[in-house]
Amino acid sequence: SPDLRGAVLYSSCEPCPMCLAAALWARLDLVVFAAGRGDAARAGFDDSAFYDYFARPGHHAVLPVEQHRHADAVDPFDAWLAHEGRTAY
């Protein structure tokens, strides 16, 4: 099951944005880490561009993300919902 409610992730370092997103997706209850993002950056693992991106609102983002909605935009989701063998997330 992708649902890990009740679980705690222990890490030697603060999760990068992608790892943090995975922890959120898994519905973890808590993430505990030792070294911080600044420590990781000093060692060459600098994710500051990602943290900056997520900290900026909409049009001020480092990489703008825009929605261009089409009439059939939700068709893939409707097909997914109609699929009886799907895994619920």
Automatic annotation (TrEMBL):
Originating organism: Candidatus Brachybacterium intestinipullorum
Record-annotated CMP/dCMP-type deaminase domain positions: 1-48
Gene3D superfamilies from the UniProt entry: Cytidine Deaminase, domain 2
InterPro entries named in the record: CMP_dCMP_dom (IPR002125), Cytidine_deaminase-like (IPR016193)
Chain segments annotated as transmembrane: none
SUPFAM superfamilies reported for this sequence: Cytidine deaminase-like
Domain of life: Bacteria
A GO term for molecular function: catalytic activity
Protein's name in the database: Nucleoside deaminase
